What we know:
With 1039 residues, the chain is mainly alpha-helical. The chain is built from 46 helices and 13 strands. It has a five-stranded antiparallel sheet with strand order 6-5-11-10-9. Strands 1-2 form a two-stranded antiparallel ribbon. A hairpin with a 7-residue loop joins strand 9 and strand 10. Helix 6 packs antiparallel against helix 7 (106-117), helix 39 packs across helix 42 (892-903) and helix 42 packs parallel to helix 44 (932-946). 55% of the residues are buried.
Amino acid sequence: MALTQALASGSYSLAAKLLDQSIQAASASSNEAQLSYLLSNRAFCYEQLNLNRKALKDYDVALQKDPNNLQALLRQGKMFHAMQRTEEAQGLWMRAAHCEVMSHDIALIIEAQALLRNPDAGVASVPAAVPAAPAASVPTSPAAATREALSTGQPIAASATDLKASSPTTNGTTTAKGRVKGSQKLGSQLLDLAGRDPQQAINEGVELINVGKLDEAETLLDAVIAEGKLPGGQPNVGAYVSRGTARALLRNLSAAVADFTEAVQMEPRYSESWKRRGQARSALGENEAALQDLKKAEELTADRVGKADCCQERGTILQKQRNYRLAAVEFEAATRLDPRNAAAMNMLGLCYTSQGRLQDGIDMYKKALRLDPSSVDTWSNLGIAHKEIGQVAEAEKAFAQSIKKRGDAESSMSFRMIGELRRGLGEHCAAIHILDRALAAIPINSGARHQHYYVELSFLRGACYHALGYHKSAVRDYNAAQAAILTASPDVGSSPDARQQQSLAFYQRELAQYVHKRLDWRLNTYFLDKDISPVFKENWCKKSPPDRHLMQNYTEQSHIPADEPAPPPQPDPKKVAQLVRAGDLIGDKLRYGHQGFLANKRQLRMGGLAAIELAQVLRSALKYQRVGMPLRVPNDGASGETSASGSHPFGWRDAMDILVRWRQLSEPNDQVIWVDLLTKQEFEAGFGSHTPIFSGQTQCVRYYMNFERALGVFKTVLLAEGRAFDAHNVAVPISSQSKKKAVASATTAEQLHKALGVDCWAVVPIESISRGGHSLEGTRLTVVRVHEIPDGYEVSIRTPVTPPRWIDFDEELRTAWEVLMGALVDGNRPAIATAALHFAYYWYNFMPLARGTAVVGGMFLQAVFLAADMPVTASIPKGYQTDWEAILSSKVGDFVASVSAWMLPREARPPTAPQMVTTAAATLAAAGSDAAAADSNTAAAVSDATVAEGASVGDAGDAVNGSGGGSGAINGHGGGAGSSPAEAPPAVHGARPPPLETLPEVEKVLGTLRARLEALNGPDRPRLHTDDGKQSLGSPLAK
């Protein structure tokens, strides 16, 4: 009651302090909508205290959190109007007047439209919606001023009369000095009416509410209630409901709840009292009580539309709690009861997509748009869903509709989405054009929301310029993003998102300047991992701000000079084109076909060119190997060498360095860093990846396809080991039969967590081929409770990379590398294939890079097969993820069999299993391995998996292993005991790339960073001159 007492006594300073606490709590819970309305409430208090600057800042942040907060739009507009900032006021009212969010308060939209017609009117009429209760009835329809505005998490929408600006208002309710008590303005005639004709007095009170004279309405209704029951002794339900509505609009929510409670107790059969109390309780954050009231209201409501409205209100509460499953149940009920409720369909689509059910969400958005094609929010939501699922054309069409209906100036989010989409496709120039258009549309001296978008859009455009190699333009945009944060309103500039963006702008600017200085260096002298401070890289990977320790140990990169010499002559364009064509053909075989993965042309071209270069280096190394002299490479530029002088034999890490450098260059905003070259403390602590499969109530778009198999592996490891480990690395025994049974029968994250009792993890054991009987620490499978989400649990993989683990995997990779080089020297293609897949298996499980391990592993396989003159022509099957095949397989042979089934070229297939076993075992024995038997098993698995009965090897109809599993084995792909193997799609083969010996040498043709970036950009893009990158980036996107 502290807030209501503060408001009742006019102590707005105390009210603001009380709201501070609620704002802190809402910020911690990430409830953006609730936080927006709390901020607008605090802004109102600041207005009453004449702290207009603070009020304007709060409104700015409120609109950043929820751009459709009608209260903030109206009130800030009125403040601007009183300050004679007419254009800004009109802009805010225009946004409110054209708000298409169907669940928002229609009364406020009407008020905004009236303000546009007559800014000095101060009040807009709204339809009467709280009819006075006749002798034997209570209100049966919601007040226009409270319908939806009383919804969960949103304080009650206030009318125009609640705003006190710098100049007096003329509505008879407020002045520049503050609120005037209703009794002083009401007049004795109306007060007398309360005793003479209470029913007519209630009618008058309703009219006062509808024109925004809330104090007067409350005073009049106080008098009616003081008179007691209506004539005839009937309960005065209508007076309590009406006064509760006025109090709710005055944000005296606790008093409003008390009035609605009185109405419920007087006549518990009327639904409207229950509904309004539920709405008010929701605004107070009393969600469980609100849900119960709305359920009771639904039961008492006779008409289907009214019932649907109650379901929609309940769904909104649950959705804001991120309880998407139960929210979907409510919205589904709402759409069944009211099949034309487009707003409920939009919210249902949001619940589906929030759970990762993208196609269901898309279908529901389309259904909503058939009913209400003007809904901007639904078009935006549809675009986002199409973007997530990888449906590019459909996403852009939906965003275009959103932009068309909202206008460029209010479409920053849609522009950003299209920009991200284009960038994700590797179409950075197209992304720049759309971002140019978005930035040009942002008004000068814009509010907080536009400031926020200006920062995001500037940074994104800088990232696109950076990837293309137009470093001066990139630095300009990174600096612009930083400057915008520094000059933004404090609430924008100090927000966590802004601080992170500011930090990333600093790191990316430094990296752009670092690369620019080296544009004409040879690739083997470009060594980001050793040139850049480990503290810098660690902070960059964590996206944390530059701290004192970093700035004391880091020298900022020199600025790009205004005048630079002309770039060197271009490489032979015919040779570049020849390499690019081959690179595109090879790179296409790296593409994952599952939802969430976009076909990034630039990254695929990078992967193909990198594979060609490594294949050429491998051919060169073989020449030395055949004469008994290993190829030696300089220590300078080698990630695995501590000394910069001297040389060393070309090894596995030198091979991967070639690929890693290409990956770092092609998309410099990705933190592709060797983990062992971070700070010593971070490496020893176990820096590593974290990839959720299922989180909260959401199926992760890219990786949920692996959930059933991962859960099956998790359970099998737990039961085999008889224990898990908790967050403190303390063993959690699984010894009782009941616990074992609960683990074995779990089919969801929730069931597994409840079976274990606490947050837990277990390690997938990895079979060694270099040390018989030895087991390596593979991926950690984890299950944790997500406490901030109702019924929220997470299953994920985590791979901490520590020094002992590094030593362990280095041993396996060295062995696999030696076997591979021996097989290449011998020209034994089946043995080459097996050794290459062995290496890839350990590489994927190792995860030695902060990012990019998966694609680098795929590039390695392409390079080896290309070097062996048996290039891969098969595309990765749809729904197949090679790295996940490795990390969920405990035995290397199972991974080899799975990948071989679709990937191996004809020349790599073993003619017979015995011959393959003999050859592979002999190769391992020659390498000094004591695990020849393990490799024999692998060879047999390859043979069994790849030679299909009655099928010619290499045909599209090859028999392949599915992603099923049996009896819950660790290497099975299914979720538990008894699951049968599922047939995987057959391999689809494409064109064979040209023979390696016919291709120009990458190191000679594309020797410098400039040449490589220009090859990635393509021949139709301008050279990397020192100007601002604006020259001829291609035709801008049409408006």
